[in-house]
Structure formats: C-alpha cells, structure tokens
Amino acid sequence: xxxxxxxxxxxxxxxxxxxxxxxxxxxxxxxxxxxxxxxxxxxxxxxxxxxxxxxxxxxxxxxxxxxxxxxxxxxxxxxxxxxxxxxxxxxxxxxxxxxxxxxxxxxxxxxxxxxxxxxxxxxxxxxxxxxxxxxxxxxxxxxxxxxxxxxxxxxxxxxxxxxxxxxxxxxxxxxxxxxxxxxxxxxxxxxxxxxxxxxxxxxxxxxxxxxxxxxxxxxxxxxxxxxxxxxxxxxxxxxxxxxxxxxxxxxxxxxxxxxxxxxxxxxxxxxxxxxxxxxxxxxxxxxxxxxxxxxxxxxxxxxxxxxxxxxxxxxxxxxxxxxxxxxxxxxxxxxxxxxxxxxxxxxxxxxxxxxxxx
Length: 358
Ligand SMILES: *Cc1c(COP(=O)(O)O)cnc(C)c1O
Fold this sequence. Notes:
With about 350 residues, this protein is of the alpha/beta class.
C-alpha cells in the first residue's frame, strides 16, 4: 500500500473558477497563468479543463513546449521573455508570445533571422522595480519595436505590487497612463487582485493566476469566500498513530510542544518533504475526521502531530485534510506567515495526485 497521503484536484472547480473570473472582467481576454507547473497542480493535469481560456501565461520554456506538445494551439505568453538569443528559435518554432523588458532583448530581436514576426508584450516598470522599461522611455521603446520586421502584434504590459492591499493601484496606474499616453495598442495589466478589486485595470487582457486555483491573492480566504471561487487542490492524509500524553510529555523534534495535562495526539502521514511547511507553528489549523483542530510541535520530514482533544473519536485511519475543501489553504498559510501561492506551488512530486470531475 502507498502512504496514505494524496492530493486531489477538482477539474470542475477549475472550469468554474475561470467562468467566475470572466464575470469579473467580461470585456477582457484572459491569460490563465500556469507558471510553476500550474501553481503546483501540474500543467498536464489541468490545462484541458481551462481550454476555454484565451491563452496561457508562464515563464519556463519547458512548460511552454509541454503545453504545445499536449495539444494547446492558442497563445502562450512568456512572462519573463527570452533569456538568451538562442531562445528565439524556440519562440518561433512553438509560436510563443514574449515579454520584452530590457534593451538587450530588443537588440537581439533586431538581429534575429526569423521567418514569422513574434508577438511582443512590452513591459513597463510602473513601480515594482522588477522588470520593465521606465515609463518615460516607453513611448520611444514602443516605436523602436514597431519598426522591427521581427515584431508582430505589440501589447503594453505592466504588473502591480499592491493590488491586494489598501494601497491599491492608483500610483502604478498613473505611471502606466503616463507611459502609454501616446500608445494606442492593447494593454495587459491585471493580476488576480486587480482582476477582483480594480476594474479600471482590466483593459484588453487580464492575467489571473492564484484565483484560478481558488486561493486568495491577499492571503485571506474571507476576501474571496463570497465570490464562488472554489479550492482546486485538496491535500489529504490519515492518522497513522495516536499517542496518549500526560502532563509534561513532549512531542516531536526539539521537544517544542509540552502537554499541560492528559492529551490525545494524532500522528499524520504528511511532512515537509510532502510540501507541508516546516515552519508551521503549533496551532496551525488542520481538519481531522470532521473537526477543525491544530498541529502540535515541529513538523518532521514525513509526519506531523495534531491535537485530538476536539475529536475524541479519531483513531488510526481517520481522515485528515491539510488544506482544500474543508480548510482553505489561505488559513494554513496565514498561520505560517506565508501565502497560499507558496504552499500550493511547493506540493512535492512524491505526493500522488488524482483528478476528479466534482
Ligand atoms: C504570477 C504573475 C501573474 C499572476 O499573479 P496572481 O497574483 O497569481 O494572479 C500575473 N502576471 C505576472 C507578470 C506574473 O508574474
């Protein structure tokens, strides 16, 4: 028998999430972001359920090739563009759309021998200071690209740093509007947070990622609980042992948890080598046999411990959900000081994954 841990993916939730997202931005086309192997879900498992999208966005050439070879014929956007001149052969061969964020990429395009023009997303640095040209140069760079025979369709692109917080998008929108004041081409700006909360950013194409998978861009499940977005991944396991502690007994590596009185503790077949965060503190929520309880002690490589005080009926073999339908990944992430993005995309390859239509 395999270890009892597994992940299930709800394909109907994926399709429904995409439909809900279209409802938020009915006049925009959608780049469904599937970078990091579909935020840990596995591109090859999920892409067909998302095939009503207008395009897929990612940044790894291997993932782009995988999608093409799996049969996706629509647009594919490389969010970080090409990394070397040789990459342009792959861009051409697989008909990819590429971001352009640096002068060397323009020079490389200008010198490239390519049979078909490449569609380009010109990236503006509107304040995040990761990738892109300064707003003041954008008009000139657009013109420079427009004049290259190697360049096909041109789109203006930028990315928001604080669309999920009270700071919002106003300062970055002002920079983008300045950058694009003499540019009449299409625009692509909105990540998940901007898609949900800043309709003025929607324009021609949106780029939702995390909400496709039913987790919150703010890290707070309550922020999306009313939208109808559904968790796609459920990570589950079972109790493989139960310990009866007495006052003063300790649990796990470092003996960091001390029982203050008699206490039943369950041992779950799930650890950090499965993708569960090692830094999850005592008190991280976990669902055991129908009850929301908490972890106790340090997470091991292959196991973690849970408090069974609230579930006296739980025994060896009882079901455990680490996150998913009963327990939003956002709630687990919040307890760990991170986001659902990190937990989902860190799912370990050793965890068997199955898909369901429910
Ligand atoms: C990851 C990413 C997205 C999607 O972000 P979410 O917050 O998951 O919606 C959009 N655009 C770019 C450039 C990205 O890198």
